[in-house]
Amino acid sequence: MTDTVDSPALARPSVSYPSVDWPAIFAGALVAVAVSFIATAFGSAIGLSSTSPNKGASPAFFYVALGLWMIFVAVSSFAVGGYLTGRLRRRLPGVSQHEADVRDCVHGLIVWAVAAIAGALLAAAAANSATKSAIGAGAAPTDHYVDRLLRGDGDRTAKGAASVSDATRGFVSRLVAENPTGNFPSEDKTYLTNVIASSTSLAPAAATERVNAVSSEMKADADKARKVAIYLAFLTAATLAVGAATAWAATRIGGSHRDQNFDLSHLVRLKR
């Protein structure tokens, strides 16, 4: 006769759940990145892009519209990703409702962090591939300033550029590229003045005036670019903060709907 041991452990095998539900997190983060990518691509198509601003709109209106669009993208993407994670996250058995809500919200923050890091890596890869193109595009402003310096007397276009050797033009181009803010050293200003005076019919005083005018234009353009960079950096930080709050709240809503078995069949079921 064989003895039978009645063990609760054998009758009801315990099931352990991880404290951090990574599959749900990665699912939500992936959806958040996808929604953000699609919305950003659509925004670029209608001119709401920091890299290709709509030149037809006023600068103030454009940057306000860009800011609102970036906030909309952050809210929509993290709302969808956070809700999905909250709905999919497995609730630990025996925990209080408060503890479940806290864990849902923390999962939302992790979704935000994973999606933000993934977005940063994608942006870095895109920036790296665009660096070569940017180098070529960066030559256009330099050529503009060089043409302004070397144009013939009375001419305001590149067609009226003074006749200078390629070596001289190359040296002037390097001086402009090395001083993008227009703060030329005194010896460089003297060289530019002599080149302009010897290559055009301008008097030395007029040549000096032209160098100062182009230098002022370069300073104004550099200051404008600096202000835009500061605005975009602040806007990016604000957008990330809004995204974190959205992911926190959306994941809690998703977790609440999970616990209540909230019916969303009317959204996912096809009508017959």
Description:
Helix content is 73%, strand content 0%. The chain contains 8 helices and no strands. The longest helix has 56 residues, at 204-259. The chain is rod-shaped and about 90 Å long.
- The total domain count is 2
Topology as a string of helices (H) and strands (E): HHHHHHHH
Main sheet attributes: strand count, strand direction, barrel closure: none
First CA to last CA: what distance?
62 Å
The geometry reads as rod-shaped
Taking pLDDT < 50 over at least 5 consecutive residues as the criterion, the unreliable ranges are 7-13, 156-160
Radius of gyration: 30 Å
What fraction of the residues are assigned to beta strands by DSSP?
under 5%
User: What do the pLDDT scores average to?
Assistant: 82
Structural class: mainly alpha
The total beta strand count reads 0
Fraction of residues in H or I helices: over 70%
Count of helical regions:
8
What descriptive keywords fit this protein?
272 residues, mainly alpha
Offer a quick outline of the entry.
The chain has 272 residues and is an all-alpha fold. The protein has 8 helices and no strands.
Q: Which SSEs are present, and which pair or pack?
A:
Blueprint (H helix, E strand, L loop, with lengths): L7 H4 L10 H24 L13 H30 L8 H54 L15 H13 L7 H14 L4 H56 L5 H4 L4
Helix pairs in contact: 2-3, 2-4, 3-4, 3-7, 4-5, 4-7, 6-7
